[in-house]
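Possible regression after last week's pipeline update?

I re-ran a chain I had predicted before the update to compare outputs. Posting the input and the new output here so someone can diff against the archived version. Not blocking, just want to make sure nothing changed silently.
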Amino acid sequence: MGNSGKSEIRFEGTGRGKKSIDGCSVEFYLNLKPGPEPDMICDNVSAGTSVLELGCGVGRVTNALVERGLVVTAVDNSQDMLAHVQGANSVCSDIESLNLNKKFDAVMLGSFLINSPKETIRHDLLKTCRKHLKNDGVLFVECHPFALLETISIGDKGERNGVHTYIDSVERNGNTLSLQLRWEIDGETWTQSFETEILNGRKLQEGLERCDLKFVRWLDDSKSWLLANVEGAVNKSINGGNSFQCRRQ
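New output (post-update):
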């Protein structure tokens, strides 16, 4: 299937609770709400659709998709994260080396993993997506909005769903940003330091095309989620807009 712990994707974090292999706090992610992603996915697939979620973490989105009637295989390289996934087939593996010998109706690559500063990692992530995607399937990719990274600055970024976000440091080296984020929830503090690549639409499309994938459209106004399919494929969900929908909450 794949190996766990060899991925080059790394973060550094502080705060209460266990840390995953890549330095993320399990306890912090357990505090986060599902957000708009489950409804976004359900606007583009039907109930019973098979979904491969890559980098699922604690199941923040996974568990909500299962509740909506999707058949989810959830992949993460942290057993501590996967322990909180419910109702999905859990696989502990690095994404880059994953090989399930199975294809899915939909594949999700979230957590801004596509913004890795190393082009080789970005390519390996998309290769895994293509390897596991049916020829008529759909791919969902989350990325840091280009406009946001171009203008990002230190300071208080406000509160959402009980989580107060601060950016404590920003360093830029070409198109690579080194960031430290701080979150406060009910008096507790977590931080995370990481590097991210500023990717414009052209770079994203070129990366997709190298893996026989094609950009279709943005799924939100901020351009943080894109929809792609296999080059040359005809897909009912893409052509029919919202004609297929799974159960929404």
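Follow-up from reviewer: compared with the archived run. The first strand starts at residue 12 and ends at 14. Marking as no regression found.
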